Amino acid sequence: MERVLVVGATGHTGKRVIEILNNSKTFEPYAMIRKEEQRQIFEDMDVETVMGDLEKDVSHAAKGMDRIIFAAGSGSKTGEDKTIAIDQEGAKKMIDAAKNEKIKKFVMLSSMGADDPSQNKDMKVYLQAKKNADEHLIQSGLTYSILRPGSLNDELGLAKVKLAEKLNERGEISRDDVAFLLVMSLADPLVKNKTFEALEGRESIKSAIIELSS
Questions:
Q1: Given pLDDT bands bounded at 50, 70 and 90, which one contains residue 77?
Q2: Which Gene3D superfamilies match (predicted)?
């Protein structure tokens, strides 16, 4: 079993990632938590935890891990400083830690629009932070996958998506389906060193991600 550190494990999407990995025969999830009181959530699921705060030093968090899923985010209601601290600088610190530990693959949850933040004035700071983190990952030398989904919703995932390196349209996708895409991206040959966008669609997640990887 390979160890997968889930950064942002306490978030809505991160918890779904943990649940999927916890049923995997290939990967063993480790939840990165910021507060001691968050430990119980994962102990109840028989999931190991790692203490780590993205606003502080996280170099220890990647030790002993094989792969990393970065699903952390400052949230839409936080200020610009927090967004830059977590979505940009926190991500960069995690990437650097992964590089030091020779992590096999780093899977990043980014956002649609991060390729051109100037197109969305309301979310420009957030998207720029995501873009800067994505570019840091691409330039790190790590094997990576960067997922840029549309607007996330909490509807039941149908495992039907539309994927492309650039979709040229806007839309939504469920957190369930995003979590499955993140977990599938852990596999070595799938979306290797690719940045791709995702919306709800008509093609099964499995066939869509294999097709995009070919």
A1: low
A2: NAD(P)-binding Rossmann-like Domain
pTM equals 0.96
Q: From residue 47, give the alpha-carbon distance in Å to each of 33, 95, 166.
A: 12, 23, 35
Rounded to whole angstroms, the Cα distance separating 29 from 214 reads 27
CATH number at residue 104: 3.40.50.720
Could you count the other beta carbons within 10 Å of the beta carbon of residue 207?
Answer: 11
**H/E/C letters for each residue in 154-196?**
CCCCCCEEEEECCCCCCCEEEHHHHHHHHHHCCCCCCCCCEEE
Distance, in Å, from the CA atom of 72 to the CA atom of 50, rounded to the nearest integer, reads 14
Which residues on neighbouring strands pair with residue 48, listed in sequence order? 30
Question: Range of 83's domain?
Answer: 2-213
Closest alpha carbon to 106 in 96, 115, 95: 95
Q: Return all residues near 132 (Cβ < 8 A) that are at least 6 apart.
A: 88, 92
What is the CA 160 to chain-centroid distance, rounded?
A: 19
Among the residue ranges 42-56, 84-98, 118-132, 187-201, the one predicted with the least confidence is 118-132
Catalytic residues: 126
Q: How many separate domains does the chain show?
A: 1
